[in-house]
Amino acid sequence: MFIIDFDDTLFDTHAFKKILPDLEKDLYKESDKVKNLLFSDAVSFLEFLKQTNQPLILLSLGENNFQKTKINITGVDKFFDSVHITADSKELALSVILNDFKNEEDVWFINDKIEETKQVMAGFPQLKPILKISPRFTEDEYRLSLIPYFSTLTQIQQYVQEQIK
Ligand SMILES: [Mg+2]
């Protein structure tokens, strides 16, 4: 099973905030621009994961309506078996998700935030984390996390492909 973050993992949130500073208003007005802020390899990455026949879960932190609208504009929701949006912490949502999928052998957790991923790992040590580099942190910080990290989703795809064969 794959549990995947949205902001700065599948979607270029960094650019989104720069191009569309009035987030709430621009989200509805500029849906074409928002659509184009998915990382260019996001769809092929999700198609690859879909082909593994494992459940795909989107887990996003933020305000429910805003996140849902943003996710739906990009159209990636169709790849996921379920979409979880949580306003407080990912841990609570994860315990719900893991309870729904008790028999999954490997649970991959793909995220960009280092500390959040470490916290989640402390609560759920069975997870297999992968970090996607976001401009929010330096590469040194990723290296020091000792968690596998990559700059692109294509590289993550190659890594997963190696690991699951
Ligand atoms: Mg993120």
Walk me through this protein's architecture.
The chain has nine helices and six strands; from the N terminus they run E-H-H-H-H-E-H-E-H-E-H-E-H-E-H. By secondary structure, it is of the alpha/beta class. It has a single domain (2-163), classed as HAD superfamily/HAD-like (Rossmann fold, 3-Layer(aba) Sandwich), CATH 3.40.50. Helix 4 packs parallel to helix 9 (153-164). The model has no long low-confidence stretch (mean pLDDT 94). The structure holds magnesium ion. Residues 5, 7-9, 112-113 line the site of magnesium ion.
Give the key terms.
165 residues, alpha/beta, six-stranded parallel β-sheet, Rossmann fold, binds magnesium ion, 9 helices
- CATH top level? Alpha Beta
Oligomer: single chain
Beta-strand content = 15-25%
Q: Which segments are poorly predicted (pLDDT under 50) over 5 or more consecutive residues?
A: none
What is the annotated CATH architecture?
3-Layer(aba) Sandwich
Query: What fold name goes in the CATH topology slot?
Result: Rossmann fold
Q: In which order are the strands of the major sheet placed?
A: 3-2-1-4-5-6
The total of beta strands comes to 6
Distance between the termini: 14 Å
**Total domains, how many?**
1
Q: What is the string of helix and strand elements?
A: EHHHHEHEHEHEHEH
If you average the pLDDT, what whole number results?
94
Return Rg in Å.
15 Å
Number of helices: 9
> Could you say which small molecules are bound to this protein?
magnesium ion
Shape: globular
CATH-level-4 superfamily name: HAD superfamily/HAD-like
Helix vs. strand class: alpha/beta
Sheet with the most strands, sense and barrel status = 6 strands, parallel
Helix coverage percent of residues? 40-55%
